[in-house]
């Protein structure tokens, strides 16, 4: 902490505190206003606050803490813009004014992160400038073997397949997002803020011709102090200790809600096994992540899969209502899969404990849609589990499912193949079902072995990476309706998935030709999730009280980081309402009945089977008043909180134990610092003035009689 | 409301003004009170009566006051030693003790082990 800053801060706080002790008085109030004005003015003159700060935050699991944090009072360092490697030497060794706050482009950060981490005594923090276009080389801050220890391939299941022994799924993974840094790391967009920072650096800190830069220097302060520490067991314990004066929560479990729906209504009040029910689960994952807290576009890793499933569900609406197949199709969208399969492990746990609408005996088979956004030459791969296939009945069912998929692809511009026989499943929610019992299932992916996604779980796995682009000069409304090539390709996949599901559920042949996904819907979904969440189509399909959520997302892509259980994240709410609109039907009932989950005043049965939601609809052309309507669907939310937190087993090896630390403030600012000598001089002069004035006061008061004798005379005279 | 100006209450905590017997009884009270796990009473006793016990010219009660002050000082020293040791140990090992450390803490610092 530098003294210069400290002194200024104290100077600002003093009038506030001082005035608290004084009685309200006009004069005092004036002083107060004046000093407040003065404080605001001084602060504004000293500091330039950063508008758009995206931090890396601390997460914890059973054994580790990962992420970044600053000290309680923020980390301060002299700005240094890192452009090349000899510059790095300045930061780590030769620079005369450590610690430094390093600003660099994100490819350089990937390269130097290890150096910066080790030299943390000279590094106060790092600001990573996100480029406006995706880099050429691959980048994934995830590990090479995602969810290594929470999938089905443990040592007990098959030692040969454990720990990605056969296939390294994410070869570009550098594990950055799972490392711990003891300084703050922020991300900035390449815009005004970074321009100000660069300018400040150029003017004050740049060493010209090998000379050392002169004071005052441009410095930056980053605040991202994290409350939780060590591991989940520690922070959950500290959450529970509440005999202190102000009990304070330090961390929260990661989690949210899974979204699910069924083609035939299933009684959701009576949990557990359903007689004569056989369900085909069609699954996709909702969440994603990147190194930074609120950037997680997950275009290929999440969005491509669940958008395909949403479109397939929509394509199946009419067919499943007109000619219902023998089996029920259950669409499941899992949350928190990035963090050791939170959503799927919870659903399986609930099925095992009769807490879900069906149980594992009801599950016929599973078809999971993984990453399908990048299928080059329209080729998709059907992954299945080599271990459970040793069971002949499972093998038979898997073969049948694959046959269904392949015959569904007939007539479409898609070819499909299977990877080598001995290859295990890629990271997928289906692995959690296999952990419970050998269920036949297939995972649909755009890669044969290693991911074709070169930006897995990174900020570059975005619309640009999926080639979603629009002709220039289009209005948002036109972009929403414009059918991109990516959307066309995913529509084909969705049609194929829908047909395969229909056959898998035992549907009748004649209906098959009528099943077709709508490219318009797919392109809108992609636009909504990857380009702009707050669009007119999404607005029509949600209740009015969710408008604020949509407003918060603004004109950015959706953030698919799962977040903590306290609040439902936007993706969950959006998918819930989209799925309801795409699979449900409009019923003509009043808003009150709709919101009370009934079709008329005496209806007490339907709420067990259906979920009713009142959505705000669109405004007619010549009006601003939206015309709402009621949607009846089978869409439900189910908890996606790791069972470890219900069982209070914070060191669980079977279930996810991820928690997110709480924090008080996350902000950054830049300002000029004076040299250490000048700071000390200022402090010294201040103290000297104080002491002199004390001395003077003492002298004056002791000699008061002498000094003020003439002044006293009138009072004496009144005797 | 208008009131006449009140004289500040005379605080008779000046030992000089007390008769010697009362000094002794006061010193005794503080000394005994310290045994109720109140080492600060002993501290006050030592500071307050030090002059009376060791500097002032001898008087009848002084011997007793001396004893009380000495014992108070001894007790105080014991307390200081015990507390210092415990605080050092606790601060040093709190993080290492983990669960026990947390349960022994009144306020847990944020963001450090």
TrEMBL record, chain A:
<keyword id="KW-1133">Transmembrane helix</keyword>
<feature type="transmembrane region" description="Helical">
    <location>
        <begin position="680"/>
        <end position="700"/>
    </location>
</feature>
<dbReference type="InterPro" id="IPR041084">
    <property type="entry name" value="Ncstrn_small"/>
</dbReference>
<dbReference type="Pfam" id="PF05450">
    <property type="entry name" value="Nicastrin"/>
</dbReference>
<comment type="similarity">
    <text>Belongs to the nicastrin family.</text>
</comment>
<keyword id="KW-0325">Glycoprotein</keyword>
<keyword id="KW-0812">Transmembrane</keyword>
<feature type="domain" description="Nicastrin small lobe">
    <location>
        <begin position="55"/>
        <end position="228"/>
    </location>
</feature>
<dbReference type="GO" id="GO:0016485">
    <property type="term" value="P:protein processing"/>
</dbReference>
<dbReference type="GO" id="GO:0005886">
    <property type="term" value="C:plasma membrane"/>
</dbReference>
<keyword id="KW-0732">Signal</keyword>
<keyword id="KW-0914">Notch signaling pathway</keyword>
<dbReference type="GO" id="GO:0007220">
    <property type="term" value="P:Notch receptor processing"/>
</dbReference>
<keyword id="KW-0472">Membrane</keyword>
<dbReference type="GO" id="GO:0007219">
    <property type="term" value="P:Notch signaling pathway"/>
</dbReference>
<protein>
    <recommendedName>
        <fullName>Nicastrin</fullName>
    </recommendedName>
</protein>
<dbReference type="InterPro" id="IPR008710">
    <property type="entry name" value="Nicastrin"/>
</dbReference>
<dbReference type="Pfam" id="PF18266">
    <property type="entry name" value="Ncstrn_small"/>
</dbReference>
From TrEMBL, chain B:
<keyword id="KW-0914">Notch signaling pathway</keyword>
<dbReference type="GO" id="GO:0043524">
    <property type="term" value="P:negative regulation of neuron apoptotic process"/>
</dbReference>
<dbReference type="GO" id="GO:0007219">
    <property type="term" value="P:Notch signaling pathway"/>
</dbReference>
<dbReference type="GO" id="GO:0032580">
    <property type="term" value="C:Golgi cisterna membrane"/>
</dbReference>
<feature type="transmembrane region" description="Helical">
    <location>
        <begin position="30"/>
        <end position="51"/>
    </location>
</feature>
<keyword id="KW-0472">Membrane</keyword>
<dbReference type="GO" id="GO:0070765">
    <property type="term" value="C:gamma-secretase complex"/>
</dbReference>
<dbReference type="GO" id="GO:0048066">
    <property type="term" value="P:developmental pigmentation"/>
</dbReference>
<dbReference type="InterPro" id="IPR019379">
    <property type="entry name" value="Gamma_Secretase_Asp_P_PEN2"/>
</dbReference>
<dbReference type="GO" id="GO:0097324">
    <property type="term" value="P:melanocyte migration"/>
</dbReference>
<feature type="transmembrane region" description="Helical">
    <location>
        <begin position="72"/>
        <end position="93"/>
    </location>
</feature>
<dbReference type="GO" id="GO:0007220">
    <property type="term" value="P:Notch receptor processing"/>
</dbReference>
<keyword id="KW-0812">Transmembrane</keyword>
<keyword id="KW-1133">Transmembrane helix</keyword>
<dbReference type="Pfam" id="PF10251">
    <property type="entry name" value="PEN-2"/>
</dbReference>
<protein>
    <recommendedName>
        <fullName>Gamma-secretase subunit PEN-2</fullName>
    </recommendedName>
</protein>
<comment type="similarity">
    <text>Belongs to the PEN-2 family.</text>
</comment>
């Amino acid at each position: 902490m530098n003294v210069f800053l400290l002194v200024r801060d104290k100077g600002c706080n003093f009038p506030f505190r001082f005035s608290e002790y004084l009685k309200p008085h006009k004069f005092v109030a004036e002083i107060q206003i004046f000093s407040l004005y003065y404080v605001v003015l001084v602060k504004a003159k000293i500091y330039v606050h950063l508008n758009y700060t995206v931090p890396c935050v601390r997460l914890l699991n059973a054994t580790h803490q990962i992420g970044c944090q600053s000290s309680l009072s923020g980390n301060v360092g002299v700005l240094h813009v890192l452009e090349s490697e000899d510059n790095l030497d300045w930061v780590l060794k030769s620079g005369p004014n450590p610690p430094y706050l390093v600003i660099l482009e994100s490819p350089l950060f990937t390269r130097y992160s290890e150096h910066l981490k080790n030299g943390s005594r000279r590094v106060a923090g790092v600001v990573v400038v996100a480029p406006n276009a995706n880099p050429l080389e691959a980048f994934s801050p995830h590990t090479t073997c995602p969810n290594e220890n929470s999938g089905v391939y443990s040592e007990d299941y098959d030692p040969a397949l454990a720990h990605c022994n056969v296939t390294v799924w994410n070869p570009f993974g550098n594990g950055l997002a799972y490392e711990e840094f003891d300084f703050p790391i922020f991300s900035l967009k390449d815009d005004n803020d970074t321009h100000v920072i660069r300018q400040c650096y150029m003017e004050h800190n740049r060493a010209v011709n090998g000379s050392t830069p002169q004071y005052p220097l441009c410095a930056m302060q980053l605040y991202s102090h994290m409350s939780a520490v060590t591991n989940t067991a520690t922070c959950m314990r500290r959450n529970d200790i509440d005999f202190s004066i102000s009990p304070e929560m330090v961390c929260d479990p990661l989690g949210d809600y899974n979204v699910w729906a069924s083609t035939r209504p299933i009684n959701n009040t009576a949990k557990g096994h359903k007689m004569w029910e056989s369900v085909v689960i069609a699954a996709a994952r909702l969440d994603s992540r990147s190194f930074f807290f609120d950037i997680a576009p997950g275009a290929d890793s999440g969005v491509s899969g669940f958008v395909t499933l949403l479109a397939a569900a929509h394509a199946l609406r009419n067919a499943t209502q007109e000619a219902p197949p023998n089996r029920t199709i259950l669409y499941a969208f899992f949350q928190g899969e990035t963090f050791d399969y939170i959503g799927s492990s919870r659903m399986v746990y609930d099925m095992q404990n009769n807490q879900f609408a069906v149980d594992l005996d009801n599950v016929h088979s599973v078809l999971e849609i993984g990453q399908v956004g990048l299928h080059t030459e329209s080729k998709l791969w059907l992954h299945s589990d080599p271990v459970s296939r040793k069971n002949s009945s499972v093998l038979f069912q898997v073969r049948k499912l694959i046959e269904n998929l392949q015959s569904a692809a007939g007539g479409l511009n898609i070819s499909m193949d299977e990877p080598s026989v001995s290859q295990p499943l890629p990271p997928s929610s289906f692995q959690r079902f296999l952990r419970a019992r050998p269920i036949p299932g297939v995972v649909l992916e755009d890669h044969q072995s290693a991911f074709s996604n070169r930006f897995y779980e990174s900020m570059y796995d975005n619309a640009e990476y999926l080639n979603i682009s629009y002709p220039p000069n289009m209005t948002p409304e036109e972009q929403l309706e414009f059918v991109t090539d990516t959307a066309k390709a995913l529509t084909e996949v969705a049609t194929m998935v829908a047909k395969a599901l229909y056959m898998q559920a035992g549907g009748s042949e004649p209906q098959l030709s009528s099943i077709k996904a709508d490219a318009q819907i797919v392109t809108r979904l992609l636009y909504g999730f990857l380009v702009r969440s707050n669009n007119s189509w999404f607005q029509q399909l949600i209740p009015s009280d969710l408008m604020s959520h949509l407003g918060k997302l603004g004109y950015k892509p959706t953030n698919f980081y799962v977040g903590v259980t306290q609040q439902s994240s936007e993706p969950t709410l959006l998918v819930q309402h989209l799925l309801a609109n795409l699979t449900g039907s409009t019923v003509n009932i009043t808003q009150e009945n709709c919101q009370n989950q009934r079709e008329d005043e005496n209806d007490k049965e339907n709420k067990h089977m259906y979920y009713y939601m009142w959505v705000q609809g669109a405004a007619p052309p010549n009006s601003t008043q939206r015309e709402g309507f009621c949607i009846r669907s089978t869409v439900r939310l189910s908890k996606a909180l790791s069972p470890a937190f219900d069982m209070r087993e914070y060191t669980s090896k079977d279930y996810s134990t991820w928690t997110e630390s709480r924090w008080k403030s996350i902000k950054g600012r830049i300002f000029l610092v004076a040299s250490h000598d000048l700071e000390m001089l200022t402090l010294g002069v201040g103290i000297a003035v104080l002491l002199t004035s004390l001395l003077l006061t003492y002298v004056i008061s002791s000699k008061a009689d002498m000094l003020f004798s003439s002044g006293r005379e009138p009072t004496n005279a009144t005797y | 409301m208008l009131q006449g100006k009140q004289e500040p209450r005379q605080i008779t905590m000046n030992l000089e003004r007390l008769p010697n017997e009362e000094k002794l009884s006061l010193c005794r009270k503080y000394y005994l009170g310290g045994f109720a796990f109140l080492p600060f009473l002993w501290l006050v006793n030592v500071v307050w009566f030090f002059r009376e016990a060791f500097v002032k010219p001898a008087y009848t009660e002084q011997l007793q006051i001396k004893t009380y002050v000495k014992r108070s000082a001894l007790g105080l020293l014991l307390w200081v030693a015990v507390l210092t040791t415990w605080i050092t140990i606790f601060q040093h090992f709190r993080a290492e003790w983990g669960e026990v450390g947390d349960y022994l803490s009144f306020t847990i610092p944020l963001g450090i082990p």
